[in-house]
Amino acid sequence: MPRRLLAAALLLSACAGPPEPAPQDSPARRVVSQTVLSDEVLWALGPDARARVVGVSALADDARYSDVADAWPPAIPRRALTSEGLLALDPDLAIVASFTSPEVRALLVAHGVRLLELDRFAGFADYRAHVRRIAAAIDVAAAGEHLLASFDAELAALRARRPAVRLPAVSWGDGWAAGAGTTFDDIAEAAGLSNLAAEQGLSGHGAIPLEQLVAWDPAVLVVSCPAGDPDAAACREAERAAASLPGVAATRAAQEGRIVAVPARALASTGAGMITAAAVLQARLTPAEDPP
After folding, report:
1. Please, are residues 6 and 109 in contact by the beta-carbon 8 Å criterion?
2. What digits encode the pLDDT tens for the residues 36-60?
3. What are the residues facing 78 on neighbouring strands?
């Protein structure tokens, strides 16, 4: 929303008097989700949670990012945070992210909308915390615990199948690698790999030139592909493209056939897709290490 419109909206709100906010500890009844993660979590929490949702994010149906693309019924509006139609949904709770603009926060708060801010997206622990906070806000805590029990059961199954030898892996794309404190750090551990970038001192996502990547000589090179299916031709093409980069062909990953493309929506997920990413890596790599 342009700043002049925002200022006008805030002024009109002030003139009319502040709306009566819902008690902070009361369950939300009309929820607007404005992050892909909350789109996914609200859907996964089941019918009682879905019934309270009056809007989801503009990316909810984008299969490049969302695990629930086309799952939400067409009758549920898709809204961007800057959309003037957001307040028309009359929400009592908006799920936003730490990077949501101050102007948008001010507009929502001025209209009596509570904010639930998701502020960290660094791995399994943050996902568990987000699920519990969202479930508590809409009074479906039991459904949240059931969802996390399923997540942890899948995670335990992955860890039980980890190979004896942890190969050093790098997740790299467009000159950036994932170091310590990232979702890939947890994904690698679950799959039975070590995060070589973290071992080399990288924290968070950092710029790593191709020359440095080659010098690290990872045993596994993880790249992303646009397809949803890890066996799709687009994923094989992404692996070939990575192998053709200068110097990469000489790395252990290329020499031993361990350049692995993972669908982007799983590799970049901050939710249950992290389990999918770990499962793809393990399925591709474990047979080579532990043949039947």
Report:
1. no
2. 999 999 999 999 999 999 999 999 9
3. 56
